[in-house]
Amino acid sequence: MSLQSAMANEARDRVKSPDSKPLVSLGLPVYNGENFLREALDSVLAQTYPAWELIISDNGSTDATEAICREYAAREPRIRYYREAVNHGATWNFNRVFTYAEGPLFRWTAHDDVCAPELLEQCVAVMQDRPEVVLCYPRTLIIDPVGEVICEYGTRLRTSSPDTGVRFDDLINVDHACFSIFGVIRTRLLRRTGLMGDFVGSDRNLLAELALYGPFHEIPGFLFLRRDHPGTSTRQFPSAKDRRVWFNANHSGGNYPTLTRAIGYWKSIARVPLGPKDRLICLVILGKWTAMRMRSMLNRTVPHLGRLDPLSSSRPLPIPGSPEPVPGSRPASTVSTTLKRVFTLATSIL
Predict the structure, then answer these.
(1) Most Cβ neighbours (<10 Å): which of 95, 193, 207, 327?
(2) What are the residue ranges spanned by the domains of the chain?
């Protein structure tokens, strides 16, 4: 065994010992990240919380990423570096770093983002004090390629609610950037999920499933710096159709993102041990999400039929052979009204 391996084993044994702080496993998936990788690694090394391990998975990078990673791993025994010969896609790489996690807490770390030194310390303190919290994350600042602050990310979700339906509803129906995926997560619960899927929006699916297990907690401080630059997936691949290649480098054939995500949400609701009431409420919320996507698809595909949209039109869809509605009569229930009635009924009888 080499001296470096012996030091690494000793470090991991030390942070996993009963009288030490809980180990946080950090997973850093990377592909051609030489531009910002050093800054990301330095922010990990600067953490005030010492009990961490960093797992780097290099997805066949062709730039200086390998040299940078080996340099840092050689001088820091808490860093483990793995390299693939070819690029398997982001989904494979995100899931791979998690398979090597040894700590009870886990956090994904992006190669182009920066963490304030107190991030791990503050998140771990919450996770230790509040065992019901599934995921803890700080507020986010958006920075530019040179690290200058662009703005504060302002979207706030009700993921701290004790109500399972409220958490699930916000995560799938409110437009948000999924930055909480870079929070500290309980490893045992993350292992029960479907992890990242190889489809666009799979991070949103994963967050929604984690929220079925319990509440999240948001640290009020801006401790996560998310970098906006031309190399991000959303900048390189602005359309969902193109971005699927980023998730899965070997993707081929048709792609039905709405159907795939709907099936993913349904599997999450089925997989998590929910009570009958919460399960039914979440299924109704999923029905609302599906209906909204159908409305959007209808408006994009046949714009002039928007007036027949069952979620927004006051006029019911015509049924062949049926009489015209009487002027002034009450319009037929829309899909959204029906869902609200089902939701009210479910919460009242269960």
Answers:
(1) 207
(2) 15-247, 275-307+332-349
Per-residue pLDDT, 256 = 73
| Residue 330 pLDDT | 42
Owner of token pair 């010969």: 85
Separation of alpha carbons 325 and 331, rounded Å: 8
Segments of the chain scoring below 50 in pLDDT: 1-19, 252-254, 306-336, 338-339, 342, 345-350
Q: What is the per-residue pLDDT for 235?
A: 58
For the structural domain made of 15-247, what CATH number should be given? 3.90.550.10
- pLDDT attached to residue 304: 58
The separation between CA 24 and the C-alpha centre of its own chain, rounded to angstroms, equals 18
At a CB cut-off of 8 Å and minimum separation 6, what does 119 contact? 47, 138, 219, 223, 224
Would you tell me how many other CB atoms lie within 10 Å of the CB of residue 130? Answer: 12
This prediction has a pTM of 0.79
Q: Tokens 């996560």 appear where?
A: 224
Q: Within 13 A of 130's CA, how many CA atoms are on the CB side?
A: 17
What pLDDT, on a 0 to 100 scale, did the predictor assign at position 315? 39
